[in-house]
Design brief:
Radius of gyration: 36 Å
Strand order of the largest sheet: 6-5-4-1-7
CATH superfamily of one domain: SH3 Domains
CATH topology of one domain: SH3 type barrels
Helix content: 40-55%
CATH class of one domain: Mainly Beta
């Protein structure tokens, strides 16, 4: 991560080393033409550093100082320090804003999912609840054998009262709500998957622009130290082997993972100049990876692993919240249904409303004078279902934690391998 302090040091240092020839600029195309008197007289390749000045004749051209001569080159094929800093800061700000926006959307969706989880659990709870009403009767009700304290209380108050029990929520309505909310949860999870993929793309883009800016910084530093050899850097063989040629004749083969010093081949962009035991040879560029390329590839790989870890941790947090909610509902229902009577009276009617973010509402119409009672058999069936759900949640959580551990081990292994590679490159 490039800090503001590092950026300022780089700018001050570069301004200090600039000479009267003008500002330092980097070639950003694979190859650019240098003109003199309206004719192509030379060329530059990607990453070469030159001094430039604005042309006095045309705003779209630079005066380029190269090989002790002055040429003209198109401005859009070169990038100056000032342009690099502005582009880096602009891109960085835009990417950070987009990542923050996506994080906000993900967190809001997670909160919505938690509300929907709570709604599903509450509907399951309400399927065990009945409204108990005492209605007047024109003739005595035959209760038969007294089965509960409610019947005994009704008889003691008025022998011409009868008890009526009404489901708090019907099975049809409960299924409808559960289907609708589960569909919303699936849709939100799909949205979050898209948001996380977008976030990863922005994080990778941030890694790339930081890598390119650091590349500019390193090129400038090397150019000021040694203008003739600043493009020479360590490369590692990435194929099974790499062939070295001299005048189109194969001379040597270098094995995989061997490190050598390479320079750009200005005459053939798809090739490199390779130093091997004191001599220089030609080799295909695709058989090698530069130190800069290794750093770039490693950062993208680590960013992808970290993103997967973050996604699993978000899922784990949601699963933990759901497990906590199920346990809470289960504990309360177990306490409320812990009496042997088939219908257990609650202390008071739970007149509540469940509101979702999308303003959908689940309201219960409470009959006047009703008392809430729990159907003991239904409650015990639901307790068994919740116990099974807790077991499934625990199993899923263990699998997700296992994936997190694997990813962390993979990250450690890749970082150790990369550190060893950079150490070998720096020792060359």
């Amino acid at each position: 991560m490039i800090t503001k302090a590092k950026l300022n040091v780089f700018i001050i240092f570069t301004l200090f080393i600039q000479s009267s020839y003008g500002e330092l600029a980097r070639v950003i195309n694979d190859e650019i033409d240098l003109y003199k008197k309206s004719k192509i007289r030379n060329f530059l390749v990607r990453d070469e550093i030159v001094h430039v000045k604005d042309s006095r004749l045309d705003d779209e051209w630079f005066e380029v100082f190269y090989d002790s001569q002055t040429f003209l080159a198109r401005k859009d094929e070169l990038q100056t320090l000032h342009q690099a800093v502005l582009q880096y800061e602009r891109n960085k700000s835009n990417i950070i804003n987009n990542i923050e926006r996506l994080n906000t959307n993900i967190h809001q969706n997670d909160d919505f999912i938690v509300e929907l989880f709570a709604g599903i659990l509450q509907v399951q709870w309400d399927r065990t609840v009945f409204f108990q009403l005492y209605l007047p009767s024109t003739k005595p009700t035959k209760f038969g054998r007294i089965k509960s304290e409610d019947q005994l209380e009704a008889l003691s108050r008025n022998k011409f009262q009868r008890i009526k029990r009404v489901e708090k929520i019907s099975l049809r309505k409960a299924k409808k709500l559960n289907r609708r909310w589960q569909k919303e949860i699936d849709q939100i999870n799909k949205e979050n998957t898209d948001f996380r993929q977008q976030r990863l793309r922005y994080e990778k883009k941030m890694s790339l622009i930081e890598n390119e800016f650091e590349r500019f910084n390193n090129l400038v530093n090397q150019f000021t130290k040694s203008p003739d050899t600043y493009l020479i850097e360590p490369y590692v063989v990435i194929g099974k082997y790499a062939s070295l040629f001299h005048k189109l004749k194969r001379i040597h083969e270098i094995s995989m993972d061997e490190i050598v010093l390479c320079n750009v081949n200005r005459d053939h962009p798809d090739r490199l100049k390779v130093e091997y035991f004191g001599s220089w040879y030609d080799a295909l560029k695709k058989s090698f990876r530069s130190k800069h390329g290794a750093i770039k590839s490693h950062r993208l790989t680590i960013k992808a692993i970290e993103s997967k870890i973050e996604n699993f941790q978000d899922e784990i947090q949601l699963f933990e919240l759901r497990k906590t909610m199920v346990r809470s509902f289960k504990r309360n229902l177990s306490y409320s249904s812990n009496i042997n009577d088939e219908f257990v009276r609650l202390k008071q009617v739970n007149d509540y409303g469940f509101n979702t973010v999308s303003t959908q509402k689940y309201w219960i119409d409470v009959p006047a004078g009703a008392t809430e009672v729990i159907h003991r058999s239904r409650a015990h069936r639901l307790l068994r279902d919740w116990e099974k759900e807790l077991e499934d949640l625990e199993y899923s959580l263990n699998l997700k934690w296992l994936e997190v551990r694997k990813l962390k081990q993979e990250k450690v292994t890749k970082e150790a391998t990369f550190d060893h590679l950079i150490f070998r490159m720096n020792e060359l």
